[in-house]
Write a structure and sequence with these properties.
The chain has about 110 residues and is mainly α. The chain is built from three helices and no strands. Helix 1 packs antiparallel against helix 2. The radius of gyration is 19 Å and the shape is elongated.
Length: about 110
């Protein structure tokens, strides 16, 4: 009886990990994002680099997604293969890129 309860507990934990592996990655990235914003504000005040410049935004975004991806690796359930893990992240990043490009003012790919 005890072993079946342990197995059920392990299965529930794996299901919880399946549900939370991507949101946990984004939460970890967001937690890291706040100190990065402070560093960017220091750069802006000390060196005159604008926070909305491509360079500043690029390194912040790369660090945000790298931390989120690494955190997701640790939370990933054991039964999820690497192939499907990368597929899930690819779909999510593609969706984020689509939303970003649709929010651009006067995108060159839109037709009048």
């Amino acid at each position: 009886m005890k072993e079946t309860a342990k197995e059920i507990g392990k299965q529930l934990l794996e299901i919880l990990r399946l549900i939370l592996f991507i949101p946990t990655g984004f939460l970890a990235g967001t937690i890291v994002k706040f100190p990065l914003l402070l560093i960017a504000r220091l750069q802006e005040s000390m060196f005159g680099l604008k926070m909305d410049s491509w360079g500043t935004h690029l390194w912040q975004t790369l660090i945000f997604y790298a931390v989120g991806f690494i955190a997701s690796i640790y939370v990933k359930p054991n039964f999820l293969t690497t192939k499907y893990f990368i597929l899930a992240w690819s779909v999510l990043l593609g969706f984020n890129a689509f939303i970003f490009m649709s929010a651009l003012p006067n995108p060159p790919y839109s037709t009048p």
